[in-house]
From TrEMBL:
Residues 35-455 form the Major facilitator superfamily (MFS) profile domain. One of its GO terms (molecular function) is transmembrane transporter activity. It is a multi-pass membrane protein. This is Hippocampus abundant transcript 1 protein isoform X4. It is found in: Membrane. Its main location: membrane. It comes from Thrips palmi. PANTHER family: GH21943P-RELATED, MAJOR FACILITATOR SUPERFAMILY DOMAIN-CONTAINING PROTEIN 10.
Length: 504
């Protein structure tokens, strides 16, 4: 068991952080000391660039794959999600050795590489989007960066700022991209998005300092990266060892699978099936984004009044309702109503994370959060592919002419009814994947109802974290060094498996 460190010593080390940085403990080539705000700028610019392309991508997708638009969209985003799930642990482990700045640069650069290809070759554009999934883990590296520069009692607020910044980047950018495309053409939107992506890369190179101190990297002691650290299924294999964790992860899988699929295609669906124009889709995104921010603000109140378990169930209930509305709705006002419900349902995953945090032992936080995050990452690959295949199987009509589509749908239903065919079912349901997703969420609700309201989560897991709760990396290093000098224990790497999973 590690010895306790007096608060006086810890306070002295924290206050001497600036001195330690100046003495060369941390390798930095940026502006100022590493902070959360550096990470916020990186996230905002990357997703603002992609947000500009929301409307152009929908048009190019329909133009490139006119017969199988939703199927190809699902496969493209599904491959990207699966590759991200497989590569995230390895990139996280490597960032623990080589530092965060390098991998911020790599992930942002390769994630944005497909953008200029949109004006060159559409096939290469979509192929590169799929392949870029290997590096589409900027969030993982950003969360690790934030963990490096904050104390544990500040971390939830910092993570909230990162999520809010992501939402803010998508409030304005789709509308701006739609306006530029209508006024000046698609090529200008691509050029502006490319310029913003390059600006993001430049800022990382010049302004973002390294957050990981040189002396706390495992390579300082010659520690190799183990397969367990890089194995994306390592955390998932431990799910069944604890009953509560098993139910939580099952709830996440059943609820986030349709959510991931919905996110991958909803804007395409609104434009090509529900006859939303570019401006309406952009306004829809902005409105739902703002409402989601509001829902997050009342999350704390809900958890105090209802408890974490019942808050999760409220979020799942709204998710089920919005999926039903998207699936059965055939009018524009129904889509807006579904969107409002979707903004409220955004509290589900934060409520699950809070439940895990409050009911887990301090030395199990990273391990348990890693399991939940790993399940979510798996859904990011499977969800879009599932939605694409279901759209394909149910022959959803993508004719942009709404009147022609309604007439052809009515004729098709009458013909099938006359012939006694049963395949008129998909024509009666505009969005079959959403209805199937609602059924999965109902199952998630049933599982969540049996989650214990109290008790320690993951009692069977002991990660043996060496890092003291509430201490920064520099403090923990000094603690380990003092123990080494006192002959109590050798200096050892600070980033163990639990910390790695927490970052991912």
């Amino acid at each position: 068991m590690p010895t306790k460190v007096s608060k006086k010593v810890a306070g002295m080390i924290i206050r001497s952080r600036k001195t330690i940085l100046k003495d060369g403990v941390m390798t930095t080539s940026g502006i100022g000391e590493p902070s959360v705000y550096h990470a916020l700028v990186v996230i905002f610019l990357e997703f603002f660039a992609w947000g500009l392309l929301t409307m152009p991508v929908i048009s190019v997708l329909k133009e490139t794959f006119p017969e199988h638009t939703f199927l190809m969209n699902g496969l493209i985003m599904g491959i990207k999600g699966i590759l991200s799930f497989l590569s995230a642990p390895l990139i996280g482990a490597l960032s623990d050795v080589w530092g965060r700045k390098f991998f911020l640069l790599v992930t942002v650069f390769f994630t944005c590489v497909p953008i200029p290809l949109m004006s060159i070759n559409h096939w290469w554009f979509f192929a590169m989007i799929s392949i870029s999934g290997v590096f589409a883990v900027t969030f993982s590296v950003v969360f690790a960066y934030v963990a490096d520069v904050t104390e544990e009692n500040e971390r939830s607020l910092a993570y909230g700022l990162v999520s809010a910044t992501f939402a803010a980047s998508l409030v304005i950018s789709p509308a701006l991209g739609a306006y530029m495309m209508n006024a000046y053409g698609e090529n200008l939107v691509v050029a502006v998005a490319t310029a913003i992506a390059l600006l993001d890369v430049f800022i990382i190179l010049v302004a973002v300092p390294e957050s990981l101190p040189e002396k706390v990297r495992p390579s300082s002691w010659g520690a190799p990266i183990s397969w367990e650290q890089a194995d994306p299924f390592a955390a998932l294999r431990k799910v069944g060892k604890d009953h509560t964790i098993l139910m939580l992860c099952t709830t996440v899988f059943l609820s986030y699978l349709p959510e991931a699929g919905q996110y991958s295609c909803i804007f395409v669906y609104l434009k090509l099936v529900m006859d939303f124009n570019e401006v309406m889709v952009a306004v829809f995104i902005a409105t739902i984004g703002l409402l989601s921010v509001g829902a997050q603000m009342i999350l704390g109140v809900l958890m105090k009044q209802l408890g974490s378990k019942h808050t999760i169930m409220v979020g799942l209930l709204f998710e089920m309702l919005q999926l039903m509305w998207f699936g059965f709705g055939s009018q524009m006002w129904m889509m807006w109503a579904a969107g409002v419900l979707a903004s409220v349902s955004s509290i589900t995953y934060p409520a699950i994370s809070a439940f895990v945090s409050m009911h887990s032992d301090a030395d199990n936080q990273g391990l348990v959060q890693g399991m939940v995050t790993g399940m979510r990452g798996l859904c990011n690959g499977l969800g879009p592919a599932m939605f694409g295949v279901i759209f394909y199987l149910f022959h959803v009509d993508l004719n942009d002419d709404g009147k022609h589509r309604d007439e052809s749908r009515t004729t098709h239903i009458l013909d099938n009814a006359t012939a006694g065919h049963a395949d008129n079912f998909p024509q009666l349901i505009p969005g079959p994947p959403f209805v199937f997703g609602a059924l999965l969420v109902i199952c998630a609700l049933l599982v969540a109802a049996f989650i214990p309201e109290s008790g320690s989560v993951a009692n069977n897991f002991r990660s043996g974290s060496r890092r003291q709760s509430g201490l920064s990396m520099e403090v923990h290093y000094e603690v380990e060094r003092s123990k080494r000098h006192n002959g109590l224990s050798p200096l050892s790497p600070l980033v163990d498996n639990s910390a790695l999973h927490c970052a991912l």
